[in-house]
Amino acid sequence: MIEVVPIQNAAHGANLCGIDLNKTITPSLMKTLTDALYEHRVILIKNQKLTKARYLEFGRSWGTPIPHVLDHMRMPGYPELLAVGNTEKKDSSSDIRNGAALWHTDQSYERQPASATMLYSILVPSIGGQTKLADMSAAYDAKTKRLLWRISVRGLPLIYKNSGKAPKTDGSN
Ligand SMILES: O=C(O)CCC(=O)C(=O)O
């Protein structure tokens, strides 16, 4: 029996209890997960012990995984996966270690953007290192009249800038 438990005092997110992802991933399980994801925006399935192959198989249950745009970010043997961390020699580069430190939307730059993304924690620090997630559809729904006017007049320009500074909104660099 799967239990969906909304995270207390959070705007979104739910823990899903009673799931073992090493067991057969049935269409009924995927429906439960998809419904929970669309309702709660973020779902946590804790206490799983998955091999890379099994994690990837679970990812494929959602659709076709998109390998990272940069070759060196792809995991050898598992190009659809990428490691984020600082425990391996490769990850000692601050570019890789801090590559996800800024607000971003995974793979939104793809022609057909990803509809979901997954994280599997292997080792987490006892303090710090939190992954923060924002519900952009709630942000859109909460838009102010002024923002609504700007969107209607100017559209929704997207600025991609991979640096430590927030982009300027006037179009200059
Ligand atoms: O490791 C994290 O906390 C977030 C990872 C992430 O955002 C990413 O890989 O895109």
General description of the model:
This protein is mostly helical and 173 residues long. The protein has one domain. Helix content is 25%, strand content 6%. The chain is built from five helices and three strands. The chain has helices spanning 27-40, 52-60, 94-97, 136-141, 145-154; strands at 3-6, 14-17, 43-44. It has a three-stranded mixed beta sheet with strand order 1-2-3. Strand 1 (3-6) and strand 2 form a beta hairpin. The model has no long low-confidence stretch (mean pLDDT 86). The structure holds 2-oxoglutaric acid. 2-oxoglutaric acid binds at residues 84, 100, 106, 119, 131.
Number of domains: 1
The total of beta strands comes to 3
pLDDT < 50 stretches: none
Major β-sheet profile: 3 strands, mixed
Spatial ordering of strands, largest sheet: 1-2-3
What is the overall pLDDT average?
A: 86
Fraction in beta strands: 5-15%
The Rg value, from CA coordinates, equals: 18 Å
Bound molecules: 2-oxoglutaric acid
Order of H and E elements: EEHEHHHH
Structural class: mainly alpha
Count up the helices: 5
Helix content: 10-25%
- Globular, elongated, flat, extended or rod-shaped: what is the shape? globular
Distance between the termini: 53 Å
Keywords:
173 residues, mainly alpha, three-stranded mixed beta sheet, 5 helices, 6% strand, globular, binds 2-oxoglutaric acid
Task: Walk me through the topology.
Elements: E1 3-6, E2 14-17, H1 27-40, E3 43-44, H2 52-60, H3 94-97, H4 136-141, H5 145-154
The structure holds 2-oxoglutaric acid (AKG).
